[in-house]
Specification:
alpha/beta; Rossmann fold; 2 domains; six-stranded parallel beta sheet; 16 helices; 36% helix; 16% strand
């Protein structure tokens, strides 16, 4: 752990300083309520934190807030206690006054890992703000009427996080720049802690029986799309580009795994309208083993998002040796690091050309596969790498009183977009 000078000028860790000052070990609360049965990128990150933080920071005690819908324990580490919270992570009690739902007495630092900072906290907090799409592009998140309510909910929680958090973590330089553009006063409290990928994602042989059980027709070549059906994921663009690339080639399919959304209704209607009814297969959320098999069997992952905070499927696909085609904007070039074919997400023709290049050129596909594996194996790419160390900045748990959550601060409304 990093050290800072105490009042006497001696360099000590935050744990040592709290132990001397309060006669006990420092106590960190981690909000784990995003971990649930439905896969999500943020849920993956939080699950990895819950799995590894206790061992990486044994001098700290942890309280994990667990969702009532999650029936299983998150950790058996001796320095962890778990509190079941019936209010959801994205519910009104969380936003208004979290202590109504859970007793946080004795907590020295609160980590809010899912964009919004809960209300009512009196201790310093770290908030991980993965992206600021709800501030810059709310219609890309949810264009439906309910999206107007979500816009105000998430907008308030994110602005509070940027104004009051002792430290704001984010997952890419692209997100850091976007946050700094709308909240320049938070720039000196921003730190990039990139998402990683679990060791479960690794190359595997294509298993036709397993793919058939998931819902992929046996023996078919396919391109893969993974992600919730929000507009920013550009699934409409993926289908239109696929139609341009392979609408006249019935031997190639498009498999879409939509982690959240309308169950693929809109995508099915579009596929039917474009004459792709037999080539587009919509799958419900799948478990990790099935997702690994889908990456392993795919000719390519197509990830044409307009914007991303990070884009977990990119890292997962590269780690599995799946060639990647993604957008030339936002965090996608940063995450793939030269290991993917890039295209303008607004240009269906360019995406279609990239799809044909990868599917019809085995040498290019092999090159992308190898570069992706190398990118995934790079330092800090694996979130479970044993050499990685947890970093809890000492100032957040000791003397940084300016940004205690109980003290209000203001933040201007967003004025910049993300590109």
């Amino acid at each position: 752990m990093a050290e800072i000078p105490d009042e006497a000028g001696q360099h000590r860790t935050a744990a040592q300083m709290i132990a001397d000052r309060h006669g006990r070990r420092p106590h960190v609360a981690l909000d784990c309520r995003y971990i649930g049965s439905r896969p999500s990128g943020i849920g993956e990150v939080v699950a990895a934190l819950a799995q590894h933080l206790p061992q990486l920071a044994p001098e700290y005690d942890f309280t994990f807030l667990r969702a009532a819908r999650h029936p299983h324990s998150l950790s058996n580490a001796a320095n962890v206690r778990e509190l079941v919270v019936r209010s959801p992570a994205n519910g009104p009690v969380t936003l208004l006054h979290l202590p109504l739902a859970v007793d946080l007495t004795g907590v020295d630092l609160f980590h809010a890992p899912a964009n919004i900072l809960p209300g009512g906290l009196t201790m310093p907090a770290i908030t991980t703000v993965h992206d600021v799409m709800w501030l810059t592009h709310p219609k890309w998140c949810n264009p439906r009427p309910w999206g107007q309510i979500e816009r105000h909910f998430y907008g308030h929680g994110i602005r509070r996080a940027l104004a009051r958090s002792a430290l704001v973590a984010t997952v890419s330089e692209a997100s850091r720049a976007a946050i700094a553009a709308i909240a320049p006063e938070a720039a000196d409290r921003l730190v990039v802690t990139r998402s990683g990928v679990s060791e479960d994602f690794r190359p595997a042989p294509r298993d036709e029986a397993a793919l058939a059980q998931i819902g992929v027709p046996p023996g078919r070549r396919y391109c893969l799309v993974v992600g919730q059906s929000a507009p920013y994921k550009n699934h409409e663009g993926a289908i239109r580009a696929f139609a341009l690339a392979f609408g006249d080639r019935p031997g190639i399919d498009l498999v879409m795994v939509q982690r959240r959304g309308d169950g693929g209704t809109a995508a099915r209607h579009l596929a039917d309208a474009l004459g792709l009814a037999g080539q587009v297969h919509m799958l419900p959320p799948v478990d990790r083993a099935a997702l690994v098999q889908l990456y392993a069997g795919a000719a390519a992952l197509l990830h044409p998002s307009f914007i991303e905070g990070f884009g977990n499927p990119l890292a997962e696909a590269m780690a599995c040796g799946c060639p990647v085609i993604t957008s030339d904007c936002s965090a996608m070039p940063e995450v793939t690091g030269g290991a993917a074919l890039l295209a303008d997400p607004h240009d269906h023709g360019a995406i279609a050309a990239a799809l044909r290049q990868v599917v019809d050129n085995p040498a290019l596909a092999d090159d992308l596969r190898q570069r992706g594996l190398e990118r995934a194996a790079a330092p800090n790419a694996r979130r479970t790498r044993p050499s990685d160390r947890a970093r809890i900045p000492p100032s957040t748990t000791t003397s940084n009183r300016k940004y205690q959550c109980g003290r209000p601060a203001s933040i201007a409304a967003p004025t910049a977009s993300v590109r």
